[in-house]
Amino acid sequence: MVVLMTVATEYSTKRPSILVLLLFFGLTFLITWGVIGSYIFWPEAMTARFGEISGAHPFFFLATWAPAIAAFTVVLIYGGFTGLRGFLSRLLMWRCPAPWCAFILIVIPVVFMAGSLIKGGPFLAPVPPEGVGAMISLMFMMLFLGPVEEFGWRGVAQPLLQRYLAPIWAGALIGAIWGVWHLPAFYLAGVVFAEWSFLPFFIGNITIAILVTPIFNATRGSLLLPMLFHWQLINPFWPDAQPWDTWLLVGVAAIVVWWKRDMMFSREGAATEVIPGEART
Predict the structure, then answer these.
(1) What are the tens digits of pLDDT across the range 143-169?
(2) 90, 56, 44, 40: which is closest to 217 by C-alpha?
(3) Cβ contacts of residue 279 below 8 Å, gap of 6+?
(4) Per-domain residue ranges for the chain?
(5) CB-CB neighbours of 129 under 10 Å
C-alpha cells in the first residue's frame, strides 16, 4: 500500500510537467510548421499576398521564434506574470566556469575554421561587397533569430525533461525534436536550409543539443550562456564548413561526454526549474 501511494504521489507531481511539455512542443510545431507549410503547399498564393519568404521575412522570424512564443505562453499559463519575471531572470545568470567560456568563445569558432580548411574553404567567411559593416550588422541581427529559440529549448524543455531523464538523454531528445522541427525549411526555396543536406544537419542538431547540456547545467539553468553558444553557431564571420563542422562537433561531443560523464549520465545536480525559486510547474 505504501509503495502504491508513493508511486501515485510521484505520478501526480510529474503529470503537470508532462502537460507543459506537450503544450510547449505542440505550440512550437503548430506555429512553425503552419507558417512554413503554407509557403510549401501554397507558394504562389502566399507570395502574392505576403511576399517571397527569405531569412529576413517577418514570417521567417515568426517561425524561428515559435519555441520562445510557446515558452512564454506555457510560463504565463502556469506561472502568471510573476512566473514570467522569474523565468526571464534566468537571462541574468551569467556565471560560468572558465572552461565552458573558453569552449564557447574559442572551440566553436575553431571547429568551423578547421572544417572549412578540410574542405578547401577559407579561414573566415568571405567579406561581402557591402563590406565588414554589413557582416557586423548581420551578426547582431542573428541575435534575434537562433538565440531566441533558447527560451524554449533550454528555457522550458531541458529542465522539464531532466526531471525524468539523465542530461545526456534529455539533450539528445531535444536535439532530435529540434532537427525534425527544422524539416519543412529544407523544402522551402529562398532560405539557406534548401541548400543543405538534412541528415548531417539532423545529426548536428543532436550533437549541439548534447554539447550545450553541460553548459546549461554548470550554470544552474542559465538562458544567457546557451544563447551565446547558439549565437556562435550562426556567426556570419565563421566560414561554411558543412558537413565537416558536424563531424568535428561529433568528435568534440564524444570528448565532452566522456569528460563530464558523471554529470551527463546522472540526474543529480541537473537544472530542473523553469521558474527559479518556485515550485516546479
Answers:
(1) 888 899 999 999 999 999 999 999 999
(2) 90
(3) none
(4) 2-264
(5) 6
